[in-house]
Model the fold of this input.
Amino acid sequence: MKRKRPHNFFKNLTYDSWLYSFISSRLSHNKNRAFSSIITRIAIASISIGLAIIIVAFGVLEGFRNAIHDKVFSFVGHIQVTQFNNGSSYEEKPISINSNLYNNYKQILPNVETIQAFSIKPGIFKTADEVMGVLLKGVNKDYDLSKFSDNMIKGRFVNFSRKRFSKELVISKKIANKLHLEVNDSVFVYFVQDPPRIQKLAIVGIYESGMDEFDEKFVISDLRLTQYLNQWADTLVGGYEIFIKDFNQLDTVQKEVFEQLDYNMHQESTRTKYQEFFDWLSLVDTNVEIFLWLILIVACFNMISIFLIMVMERVNMIGILKAIGASNFQIKSIFLVRGIRLVLRGMIIGNLVGLGICALQYYFKIIPLDPENYYMNTVPIDWNWPTIVKLNLIIFFLILFILLIPATFIGRIRPIKAIRFD
Done:
C-alpha cells in the first residue's frame, strides 16, 4: 500500500499569504482608478493625522504631569513627617533625627529613595522701601540639589561649608521683584520671637517654580541657621521629607512609614497637602482622554467607510474570484491585507509627524505658556516610549478589529449579481 504524503500546512499558508499580498498590491497600484487612489490617500491621511494628534497629546499630557510633580516634589518631597501640631502657626515643634525611621530607612523602607531633614522658620524681610513676610526653609548639606536645580535661574545654591551656619539665602523671582533684590544683595530678616532676633543675610541665588504657593513665601536657607534661631540642638529638626522611588506606590509607602512613626509623629502626603495641583491634573487627564477617544472613534468610522468603498469598487472582481472558486475567507484576506497596508503606512507617517512635532517643541520651545495659569513658561514634552509603543499597538489592533466588521459584507455578495454589477 502506497503511503499518503502529509499535507504541508506551512507551505500552503506561505503561498496563500503571498497570494493575498500580491493581489492586494496590484489593487493598490492600479493607476486606472483615480477614485481608488484618492480613497487610499484619505485613509492614510486620516490614520496619520489621528495618530500624530494622539502622540502629541500624550506627550504634552505626560510632560505636564511630570513637570508639575517635579516642581511640587522639589519643595516638599512625596511625604512629610512632622510632630503633631494642633495649631495653625508656622512655628514648628521639633523632632529628633536620632530615630529609626530617619537613620535606617534604607533597611526598613525598600520603596523609599531618600529622606531629608528640614525646618520652617517664619521671618520678615526688611529693605529700604519694602517689608514682606517669608518662610525660611532650612535644609542641610544632604539636600538633593538635583531635584531643585531646574528651578534655579540666577546665582547658586546655599554653601554649607561654614562651620557654624551659612548666612546665605536663595529667594524666588517674585520676592526678588517685589523687594527689588538681586544676587549678591543683602537683606535684614526679622524673627518675631522671645527675644526677637535680626539677621543680615546675603542673597546668593534666585529660583522660579512658577507656583505661587511656593514662590510668594518660601526662601531656602541653611538648616543650622533655623536651629540656631529656634535654639534647638543639632539633632532637632522641623521634620523629614521622604522621596519614594515610584509615585504610584505612594499609598503603600504611607502604610509602611506609618508603622515606623514614633508616637508623637505625623505624616502627610504631598497629594493631600497640595490637592489643588493634583485635582487640576486629573481634570486635564479626563479632558484629554475624552478628546482622544473622539479621535479614535472618528478614525475607525473613516476606515469602515473607506473599506466599504474599496469593496464596492471591486464588486466585479469579487464576483469573478468567487466564480472561479475563491472562498469568502480568501477574498476577505485580500482586502484585509490591503487595509493593513494602509493602516501601517498611515501609522508610519503619523509617528514621524507626531514625534517630529514633539521634538521641535522639546528642543526649541516653540509654543509658550502663561506661567500664571500653567505653572511653566513653555509646553512641556515627555518621551514616554512604552506609552508610545502601547498607543501604536492599541490603534493598530483596534482598527484591524474594526475592519472585520465591513469585511462580512463580502460574504453576502453573489457571483452572478456581482459580475453584472456596474
Notes: Residues 1-15 have pLDDT under 50 and may be disordered. The chain has two domains: 10-69+278-420, 85-263. The first strand starts at residue 79 and ends at 83. The two ends are 55 Å apart (CA to CA).
